[in-house]
Every structure is written in C-alpha cells, then in structure tokens.
Write a structure and sequence with these properties.
Order of helices and strands of chain B: EEEEEEEEEEE
Order of helices and strands of chain A: EEEEEEEEEEEE
Largest sheet of chain B: 7 strands, mixed
Distance between the termini of chain A: 41 Å
Mean pLDDT of chain B: 91
Number of strands of chain B: 11
Strand content of chain A: over 45%
Low-confidence stretches of chain A: none
Strand content of chain B: over 45%
Largest interface: A-B, 23 and 26 residues
Distance between the termini of chain B: 34 Å
Oligomer: heterodimer
Radius of gyration of chain B: 13 Å
Structural class of chain B: mainly beta
C-alpha cells in the first residue's frame, strides 16, 4: 500500500553542519512530493514540493529532488542553523484529497 | 486576521465527556481536514470535508463526529472521550485536491483525557 518511510530521529547537528534527512515512498503512479516543517508548538508548514520526476523543490536553503528511479525525496541543507530545529515531515499526494505523511524526523541544531 | 485558527489550544477533559474542538478558516477554502498526531504514528486523517455539508471518514474516524454547516467552520466532536483519544489535533484546509496543492495547518489543540 501507499506509505512514506523517513529516517528516525532525533538528528543532532552542530550549527553550519550539512543536513540530510532521508525519505522514500511507496505509491502507485507518480505522486507529488512534499516536505513540511513543524516548529515547536506550531502546526505544520509547507517547506517545499516537487510535482514530477527530477524536479527540485527548494526554500529557505533546503532542497529536495524527486528521484523516480529510487522513489526518494531526501531533504538537504548545506549549513543548518539553530533556528532550523524542528520536526520535518515527508509526504506525498497522489491526486486525491489525501496526503500520506511520514512519521516525522526531529532535528536538533546545537550552537 | 486571515488564516486558520483552532480553539482551544489546550484542553483537559474526563473520560466519557463530550468535547468539541473548533476550527475556523478565513480563505473560503473548499477542503478541510482533521488530523491527529501521535508519537510513532505521524499524522493520521480522522475526517475530511470537500465543501459545506459534505464530509467523509478518513483513516481513524471511530469515536469522532464532524459537521460543516458553513464553509469556514469544521468542528470536531468527541462524543464520549477515551484516554486513547489523548493527542494533538490539527485542522487543515486546502484550495483544492490537485496534486500541486499544499495544506495550511492550524496551530493544533492538545487534548488530554484523564
């Protein structure tokens, strides 16, 4: 069935370190892919998206590339900041109303 | 202010009581959703609505009731609260269901059932 698998957290990094959060999906067809971010005490916010294979979504220094061959959408950032500490959710949307979310990956960035 | 607001922000209730969580959006988005967020489960869809007076079940609807008499409001009612319904509840809205549409989420309601 449809599912999203994310790396388990927490991921703890020092400021200015390189970030990768892995995400793979199982879906029929070619879904649109999303990353959402949840800051402490807040709801989820759309971070970036990609709607077709080889598309790269980017926002606030974060990037993710839609890889159809590996069914992956890994999130990367070249230099993280303390303010990036949050929970990151990978998700896909398969053309219906419904998102499939991963379980989330908590990122802690230390000064 | 424009946006999507949930109330209350925090709620403690007793087992067996009825409790209603409110959700209000100001964009006139057609689609609205209720999710619960639990450790190890991520977000799970409870109910959704495609328009006023149109609602349908999601993955985990048991024990919940929704209504949508007006486009902007989508309350979620726990008819007889149980401890397993202790969770953080998020309301979301969307302009449409096309593959490029994202959701806008409210800030959540943390519900504790004692």
């Amino acid at each position: 069935g449809n599912s999203v698998t994310q790396m388990e957290g927490p991921v703890t990094l020092s400021e200015e370190a390189f970030l990768t959060i892995n995400c793979t999906y199982t879906a029929t067809g070619y879904p649109s892919l999303f990353w959402y971010v949840q800051y402490p005490g807040e709801g989820l916010q759309l971070l970036l998206k990609a709607t077709k294979a080889d598309d790269k979504g980017s926002n606030k220094g974060f990037e993710a590339t839609y890889r159809k061959e590996t069914t992956s959408f890994h999130l990367e950032k070249g230099s993280v900041q303390v303010s990036d500490s949050a929970v990151y959710f990978c998700a896909f949307h398969s053309g219906t109303y419904k998102y499939i979310f991963g379980t989330g990956t908590r990122l802690k960035v230390l000064a | 202010d424009a946006g999507i607001t949930q109330s209350p922000r925090y709620k403690i209730t007793e087992t067996g009581r009825q409790v209603t969580l409110m959700c209000h959006q100001t964009w006139s988005h057609s689609y609205m959703f209720w999710y619960r967020q639990d450790l190890g489960h991520g977000l799970r869809l409870i109910y959704y609505s495609a328009a006023a007076d149109i609602t349908d079940k999601g993955e985990v609807p048991d024990g919940y009731v929704v209504s949508r008499s007006k486009t902007e409001n989508f309350p979620l009612t726990l008819e007889s609260a149980t401890r397993s319904q202790t969770s953080v509840y998020f309301c979301a809205s969307s302009e449409g269901t096309g593959v490029s549409y994202g959701y806008t989420f409210g800030s959540g309601t943390r519900l504790t059932v004692v």
